[in-house]
Design brief:
The complex is a heterodimer of chains A (422) and B (119). With 422 residues, chain A is α+β, with helices and mostly antiparallel strands. Chain A is built from 14 helices and twelve strands. In chain A, strands 1, 2, 3, 4, 5, 6, 7, 8, 9, 10, 11 and 12 form a twelve-stranded mixed sheet that branches. In chain A, α1 runs antiparallel to α3, α4 packs across α14 and α6 crosses α10. The longest helix of chain A is centred in the C-terminal third of the chain and has 36 residues. Chain A is elongated and about 125 Å long. Chain B has one domain: Arc Repressor Mutant, subunit A. In chain B, strands 1-3-2 form a three-stranded antiparallel sheet. In chain B, a hairpin with a 5-residue loop joins β2 and β3. The chains are: A alpha+beta (422), B alpha+beta (119). The interface between A and B is medium-sized, with 24 and 21 residues.
Amino acid sequence: MSWTRFFRRRRWDEERARELQSYLEMETDENVARGLPPDEARQAARRKLGEPLRIREEIYLMNTVGVLDALGQDLRYGARVLRLNPGFAAVAVLSLALGVGANSAIFQLLDAVRIRTLPVKDPSELVEVRIADRKSATGRFTGRFPQLTNPLWEGIRDKAEGFSGLTAWGTSRFDLSDGGEARYAEGLWVSGAFFETLGVRPAAGRLLTPEDDVRGCASPGVVISHAFWQRELGGDPSAVGRDLRLDGHPFPILGVAGAGFFGVEVGRSFDVAVPLCAEPTIDGANAALDKSDWWFLAAIGRIKPGWTVARATAQLAQISPGILQATVSPRYSVGDAKHYLAFSLAAFPAGTGVSSLRRNYEKPLWILLAMTALVLLIACANLANLMLARASAREREIAVRLAIGASRGRIVRSPAGSAPPW
Amino acid sequence: MPKKGNPPLQGELLQGTLDLLILKTLALGPAHGHTVAHVIERRSDDVLQIEHGSLYPALHRLEDRGWIASFWGTSENNRRARYYRLTPSGRKKLVEQTSRWDDLVRAIDRVLRPASEEK
């Protein structure tokens, strides 16, 4: 029977009542048979048995879990009191609901922007590689994360140790239209190891590999996001292999990235990822690949097993001067070059991805969360005050409860489980 | 409330004894509470005057532990009554408790009448 008896105790009690009744009847019968008058026979039977109510209570108590029972009573009492004071109930429920609702709403936002990790394999291993404490730099900046130039990236790619995978990416926009009105897709410039490094699986076709991204490739394959595939191509499996026009140049679609992969930028999602080597195809003579003062890339890598972020940073700092020396832009002034050469590369944890949303809104969101938490606290304090104010009005009730045998603990608990009379 | 296993009898002697008596009574065959009470009284030559009311919590406890089972039936003189019968685990318990009881009686006996006194 075990604990389930707790929920069946009422039925049990009825059963016991009937059982005790049948005992009384039998005993009375026997007494009558022994020659007692019916009245006396019944009384004798009662004496023999003892008080039925006390017996039933004893059995009932065997079946209850005291704390649960008391809790149930308190809750029932609380519900009763609330029903009798709808005004108070409405105020209490509303203020608490608003407080809790606002808190969870803000927290959800914060979770999406700050806390949730990227939907890729082992996001905790991901690190960002960029120039530490770069306050200013000279040159041209495009995309939302202009942290590195391509020559700088190539230097890092060739010399950095401590990463089991390292990749660069930059944001861009591509015109999908075939002439006529421009229709833009959110684009990503990615180095060949992008999908490999992040551990993304294809939903169809295949993803880019380092072999797709070699200097001089004219129109390599591109990878589209799952959302773009569904939205623009109707999720058609035969889309793989078809050409996609980007800024007027045809690129064959190699494959579709797994559903849920939106890139590494929280709050944005990419439509199409194009290998870096195709940049000259699109940008023509104005290509960025060899310009060491055109900042448009960001690097993200996966830390090697056994390495730490600090160790990777130390190694990056060691190779920084060489890379910087080799990539000073000829168009820099002496001052610019000196400033540029003082940079130092470093690694930063990036398991939660990067985000301009975060950059701009993280602090306000935390403040908002703190404020809503405070509002909830104030609501609670108000309610507590209301209850306290009414406690004195309950003096008589408490006196009566004590008189009929309530323990002090129960008295203290009962207003906590409910609201006092209005 | 004593749990399954072999708790010390100390302090629970009376309660444990009542359980044992009930189990023994039911070993003869299914019976309802009224019968059990009277059988215990009669077989002890009315030495054990149990309060019949205290029998029911004990029955409930035994049923809760699965040593006896109950069902509704009709008594000899055509009244609805709740019958109890021994379950297999109750039967095992009875054997176990009986031997425990024998041990206890022997032990007390040895203390009360040491061998040296018998000479």
